[in-house]
Amino acid sequence: MITYVLEMLLATACGVLIGLERTMRMKSAGIRTHALLAVGACLITILSKYAFNTDANVADPARVAAQIIASVGFLGAGVIFREGDVLKGLSTAAGLWATSAVGMSIGAGEILLGIILTLLILFVQFIFHVFPAGFDAYSENEIVIILEKNDEVENKIKEISSQHQVKVKGRTLSKENGVVTIEYHLVHKYKCNIKEEFEKLIDYDCVKSIVLK
To answer: Is residue 185 predicted with pLDDT exceeding 60?
Structure first.
């Protein structure tokens, strides 16, 4: 019994560490979510190993633990949402799934594997936040520009975007009363100060609004 309690405490601690990193980055799933997921997965694994394994010829201790993976899928789906053409929350959902594996490892008695996995999760989440790569290198903050169709301003947007490594996430056209309106959704590199560059576009009469979210 004492061994099981220690394993659950360790799983909780690992979940807290992972959740702390998520909380510091203001993600939807934080300390409580990760801690509860880790300790829950740990206890279910312990129960699947011992409580339901009364007859080795009949019981399959892996069946209960296997349901954890499917259940975490529903939890992960709750933190994923679409904003425009981009899916958000995927890394949080993957972190929850991996955290369940931490709890399962510790519950199965593989303490070292659980600790190593915790460190790997923290390393991946932290290192690619400090040194982002690919699309992760672009800020989730958006620049939304709404303007009446104007080739000169559109070329100016392309020019600024090219100079400052800004990507076009979405471009929506609409027509009202014969006037074609374009809405640009842009994302930019972290630590890239392009606010002043885009704000200059407000001097054009065709530009209706510029919002830096």
So the answer is: yes
Task: Provide the 3-class DSSP secondary structure of residue 28.
Answer: coil
Q: What is the DSSP letter of 134?
A: G
Can you tell me whether residue 104 is helix, strand or coil? helix
Domains of the chain: 2-131 (no CATH), 136-212 (3.30.70.260)
Whether the pLDDT of residue 140 is over 60: the answer is: no
pTM of the model: 0.55
Q: At residue 138, does pLDDT exceed 60?
A: no
| CA gap 14, 35 in Å, rounded | 7
Q: Which of 202, 195, 193, 196 is nearest to 143 (CA)?
A: 195
**Residue where the block lists tokens 């939807």:** 28
Reduce the DSSP state of residue 165 to 3 states and report it: coil
Among the residues of 30-87, which ranges form H helices? 31-50, 61-77
Angle at the Cα of 127 from the Cα atoms of 188 and 9, rounded to 5 degrees: 130
> d(Cα 147, Cα 153) in Å, to the nearest integer?
9
